[in-house]
């Protein structure tokens, strides 16, 4: 599978801008009750694959999670050698990013929350406000989020998440 035609940083800037979002063809996006659209399983797997490719390139062992706008898990993989705690970290970062509609490590002021995640956090899903989680917007609507944990630093976690986003960006 080839790499993205734009850099991870450029893809992350693009994906984080609701006005400049993925062009969705009919039937491509999964429907989510009450919230509009969500990342499909195929798209979630592309996000995971891109993040894991980046982790391998920096010799990191990570856990990657992708959730819908409500914080429900769509895809999750833990690389061989990644700690068990990295799984909870990646889920928590994805849920926090979906809840806030922005990177999980950003401060809480100045943004309107996306309250759809209340149910999954009330049921015990982790919620981690550390770098490594990024939201994904499709046609201006929050479609889900990716979370990465275990790379050694939060900066490396976020770098892997950006690579996941780049793998989903249009070629």
Structure described in brief:
The protein has 171 residues and is an alpha+beta fold.
What does this protein structure show overall?
By secondary structure, this protein is an alpha+beta fold. The protein has a single domain (31-168), classed as 2-Layer Sandwich (Beta-Lactamase), CATH 3.30.450. Helix content is 36%, strand content 19%. It has 5 helices and 6 strands; from the N terminus they run αββαββααββα. It has helices at 8-15, 41-57, 84-100, 118-122, 154-168; strands at 30-32, 36-38, 63-67, 73-78, 133-138, 141-149. Strands 4-3-6-5 form a 4-stranded antiparallel β-sheet. A two-stranded antiparallel sheet has the order 1-2. The longest helix is centred in the N-terminal third of the chain and has 17 residues, at 41-57. The two termini are 12 Å apart.
List the helices and strands and how they pair.
Layout: H1 8-15, E1 30-32, E2 36-38, H2 41-57, E3 63-67, E4 73-78, H3 84-100, H4 118-122, E5 133-138, E6 141-149, H5 154-168
Antiparallel strand pairs: 1-2, 3-4, 3-6, 5-6
Helix pairs in contact: 1-5, 2-5
CATH fold description: Beta-Lactamase
> Uncertain segments of ≥5 residues (pLDDT<50)?
1-35
CATH architectural designation: 2-Layer Sandwich
Q: Taking Cα atoms only, what radius of gyration do you get, to the nearest Å?
A: 14 Å
């Amino acid at each position: 599978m080839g790499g993205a035609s734009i850099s991870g940083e450029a893809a992350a800037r693009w994906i984080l801008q609701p006005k400049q979002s993925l062009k969705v063809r009919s039937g491509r996006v999964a429907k989510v009750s009450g919230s509009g659209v969500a990342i499909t399983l195929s798209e979630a797997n592309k996000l995971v694959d891109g993040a894991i490719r980046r982790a391998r390139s920096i010799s990191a062992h990570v856990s990657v999670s992708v959730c819908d706008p409500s914080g429900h898990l769509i895809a999750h993989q833990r690389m061989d050698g990644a700690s068990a705690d990295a799984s909870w970290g990646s889920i928590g970062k994805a849920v926090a990013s979906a809840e806030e509609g922005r990177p999980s490590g950003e401060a809480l002021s100045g943004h309107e929350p996306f309250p759809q995640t209340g149910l999954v956090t009330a049921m015990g899903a982790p919620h981690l406000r550390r770098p490594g989680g990024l939201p994904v917007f499709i046609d201006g609507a929050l479609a889900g989020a990716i979370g990465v944990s275990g790379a050694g630093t939060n900066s490396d976690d976020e770098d892997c998440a950006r690579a996941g986003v780049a793998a989903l960006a249009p070629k």
